Amino acid sequence: MALAELKLAATQTRLTGMVMPAGLNDQRVDAMNRVITMGLPHKRDEYWKYTDPATLTQSEPEPAALFHNDEGPLFADVDRIKVVFVDGVFDADASDDLSCEGVEIQRLSDATGGWAADLYGTLETNGQTPVNRPLAALNTAFATDGIVVHATAKAAKPINLIYLHGDETSDVMLHNLIKVDAGADVTILETGPAAARFNCVTEVDIADGGAFHHVRAQGRDHERRAVTHCFARVASESLFKSFTLTANGKLTRNECILEIVGDDAVAHVAGACVGDGGDFHHDDTVFITHDALRGESRQVFKKVLRNGANGVFQGKILVKAGAQKTDGYQISQSLLLDGDSQFLAKPELEIYADDVICSHGSTSGAIDEDAMFYLQSRGVPRKAAIDLLTLAFLAEALEEIADDKLADDLRGRLESWLERHG
Fold it and tell me: SS3 for 265?
């Protein structure tokens, strides 16, 4: 059967019985029409050839056993606003009051008009060119809730979206909208596994001189599956910074699609991933478009893989004509702790300006035996030496987090993971 027919059949099966939530009807209908036109992804699609999307597109999610651990909540010592979703349902009792100086917060289900309605689906639609992203359009059509954040000044506290997983067959779609006014500054934290199958889209619109910081730790559930998309529009002299830590899970695909549309803007995307076992598959897919003068972008991704784990990186920098003085940097590296794990990388540059500095690099390797010998010769046990070298390998990605306290919290979780997986 031809690919187009396979995708059409899978799309029709997936959409059967799905009910579009109330509100934002025009945007939702438009998104559903785009899903039907594109068709849901198939492993034979170019941007999915390293990652099989079958369990993300089938009608029902694969069950995911609940995971319990004795570690305390991440960022527990940070003064933050907690916004809690349990299997995609807002938990008002577990959440904090949403009032905060410098920022307005509400649920997506309560946002029926104004800027939220104007933004909803707009950046996702823009991000469908030149690469189709049908799972993001599916989310725009059917997301049941999410958070809407309007930063009007410097937010007094970070906003922590906490996604809890309580049902072994939960299938969740959440859609978040972030608007950062000129000169405003906001930090969004995301923690937790969310569901057996999780589809999340975040749209971020940053005005001139605004700053958006994003730190995400994807939950440790061993059997969860997730696909996330972050679409951002970055205006003049503004800042976008996003970091993701991923541990465990069967399948994770994180996509980040950024448009630098203003002069002197900065956009950094980074990630650290640790995976153990042949059923672990982690995919980072990034597309950054430079369409203004003197833009700076960085992509820094590090993966530590063992016991047959699989890692993927697909990253592209597109520099449009006229985007002179662009500075684009991309690095993807893997540390393979055995001979059974694999890392697949597809770095790309596409440049139509002649006065730019752009580079990309990708490497895979094992533990440096000379460094191991040095540490062991000074009395460091082999297991501890491996952990130290692993943390050193991941350090460049963690350095992309601007807040040292947040970085220290994540570094501590990495150390705990390494201790358990020796």
Answer: coil
What type of residue sits at position 84?
V
Encode pLDDT of 69-113 as tens digits.
767 789 999 999 999 999 999 999 999 999 999 999 999 999 878
Q: Is 322 exposed, middle or buried (0-12, 13-18, 19+ CB in 10 A)?
A: exposed
The Cα–Cα gap between 82 and 77 comes to 12
Residue showing tokens 């990495």: 414
Question: Distance (Å, rounded) from C-alpha 78 to C-alpha 159?
Answer: 10
What is the side-by-side order of every strand in the sheet holding 197-206?
Answer: 103-107, 147-151, 171-180, 197-206, 225-234, 251-260, 281-290, 310-319, 342-351
Q: State the Cα–Cα distance between residues 120 and 123, nearest whole angstrom.
A: 8
What DSSP string runs through 305-358?
Answer: EETT-EEEEEEEEEE-TT-TT-EEEEEEEEEESSSS-EEEEEEEEEE--SS-EE
Residues 360-409 have pLDDT tens digits of 999 999 999 999 999 999 999 999 999 999 999 999 999 999 999 999 99
What are 33's two structure tokens? 């029409």
The DSSP secondary-structure symbol of 405 reads H
Look up residue 142 and give its two tokens.
């059917």
Domain residue spans of the chain: 3-13+20-368
Name the strands in the sheet holding 327-336, side by side, starting at the edge strand that comes first in the sequence. 89-90, 81-86, 159-164, 185-192, 211-218, 239-247, 266-276, 296-306, 327-336, 357-365
Which positions ≥6 away from 369 have C-beta within 8 Å?
A: none
Helix (H) or strand (E) run with residue 262 in it: none
Instruction: Give the start-end residues of each E strand in 235-294.
Output: 239-247, 251-260, 266-276, 281-290
